[in-house]
Amino acid sequence: MTSWWELGEGGGYPGNELALFRIRCPFCEEKGNFERVFHGEKRKADSSKRLNFDVLKCGNCSGFVHVMWSANEFGSLHNFQVLPWPTGKTQAPEHWPSDIGRFWAQAHENVKNENWDAAAVMARSALQGALREQKACGSNLKAEIEDLASKGILPSIMKEWSDELRFLGNESAHPRIGQPGPEPQEVRDAIKFLDFLLVYLYDLPKEISDYRTRKNRISQ
After folding, report:
1. How much is the pTM?
2. Which CATH architecture group holds 98-211?
């Protein structure tokens, strides 16, 4: 996004009004329990586009959050930015499969807490779950990676990194007596790859779908 006027234009959430139920309080972590106490807006010249500025009060802890949001100029999508934002538990995007998001979030939480073995195992679980959700066939993770690569779903560079993540997770999931723990940077690198893989499998298709939806509405 190169301009705030692009907020809501490249994708977002259904509807052209702010979805309060999606906003989480950064102080008490309660979601969707807000009262709007201020609203202002700025309109773009010669356009129906507008930026909205809301102050919301949490009904649980009485904390305040600032929300800037905007609806798509030609469709029925909107997006928002919140300040301050929650710094608590990692949350997976809502459009990811819930079990894969759960493993991914646990991988990131274990990195925060420097639980490197647990992070590696959870990253491996997220990888295998994502591949199986993509209809991978095989008796084990190695075969499932090979299957999706042969079908063209996994590009060669992602196949290579999937194998690296598999090796790392296997060592922690099936330890040998006296085995040293994984190197922290290797775990961080593997989870960074996992992030890219899930963007490729879930975020990009959603953005393409959102784009097609907007394009169809404009042409109607």
Report:
1. 0.69
2. Up-down Bundle (1.20)
